[in-house]
Task: structure prediction
Amino acid sequence: MADRPPQTTRPAQHEPEHREPDPPRDAGRLDGSSAGDAGILAETGPLEEEPAKRDIIDLREPREGLPPVTSTPQALAEAISRLAAGRGPVAVDAERASGYRYGQRAYLVQLRRAEAGTVLIDPVSCPDLSELDAALAGVEAVLHAASQDLPCLAEIGYRPRALFDTELAGRLLGYPRVALGTMLEEVLGFRLAKEHSAADWSIRPLSAEMLKYAALDVEVLTDLRDALAVQLAEQGKDEWARQEFAAIAAAPASLPRPDPWRRTSGIHRVRSRRGLAIVRELWDARDAVAQEADVSPRRVLADAAIIEAARLQPTDRAQLDRIPGFSARHARRQATAWLAAVRRARELPDAGLPDITGTGVNTGPPPAHRWGERDPDAAARLAAAREVVNALSAEHGTPAENLISPDAVRRLSWEPPDPPDEAAIAAALAGYGARPWQTELIAGQVARAWANPAPAKRPETSEAPEPPASLGET
Result:
């Protein structure tokens, strides 16, 4: 996992598993002060001395030592038996080779459960974890940023039925930074190393340092889960979290994104349909090369090179080679394919060119900045709904996007139910994927905001007011 904080040189020591979690922060305060402090702070102002910071403990060695990598059917069966006999939730993580290999497959799976210890599984040698899935069917899986790891785990047969996402819990609780390393340090006082956060996990054999890093990622993940569960209960958000986690676990596999080439970095610089066609053809050619070679597409050809080719539209090899990125050794090998892609785009009839805005791909409402001209009433509804969500976000200390999907708010405001009462708004939001806790929190307030629009604000002016008319004027 990425985004670890820097290390110190303190000795490697940490407390036994399932220790008592640190006391949670006050339910309504993200600064750590208690409710009773509020009156004191209001009367006397900020305290002159900040409370002493806790000691931070570096995690450098797994507590039972580095476990062997499970890479044979017999070793996998033994590991599954040990995990099945363990106690409590199972901490789960997966390491991928993003930026190195094609796709998002798992190259190492780490699990840890009380009374079972840590298990490291090589999914290249053991590509079928369906027996693990069956053995842990009733066990809660604890993951950090579960939506990132669940797809690659599902590919090898492990699909948790119940889960606890420590990253999402941190968001609901209002933590400003929710990377695993940051949360472990802030909540538990543990610090993880970060040297291998962007490593190529597809290499074999994996070094002992990489394996140690991977084992430590699940070392205290369950402890973090326990501490966050206490805080969720203290803030009255445990039911919110339960519904969110259930939705993640039950979510179907994501469908392929329509027109994935439109996510090419810098595509906003391409302003013609012919240029977009070149982006599309080069993107498809690059993807085919990358898939065949099992390397990350961006290691084949950079996005910036595709965008520049779309703007310059080269007609021969010499022009292509002058575009930064195409002259690199690995890109020159495919020069014929790149020129063929550009040629195909240049020869397309107008009817075959992609639309500038992607019309026909996005079935949602138009961009919100255009609403004022196209539908002023919808723009007013959107502004009122956003004001409601932002106010609730401030009240509950939870990011607005976690209170309700911004896309759901846009769709609701663009096509409101008739009549737009609380029940109808709740039903519409549920249709857009909102959970019951979200509709209960938001629907009524949006209905009231729409029924009682705020008065239009008078335009501000710095000019002095007109003097009153004299008695002699008519």
Observations:
- The chain has a mean pLDDT of 87.
- The beta strands are 57-58, 69-70, 87-96, 106-114, 117-121, 141-143, 163-165, 190-191.
- The radius of gyration is 28 Å.
- The chain has three domains: 51-250, 260-352, 368-451.
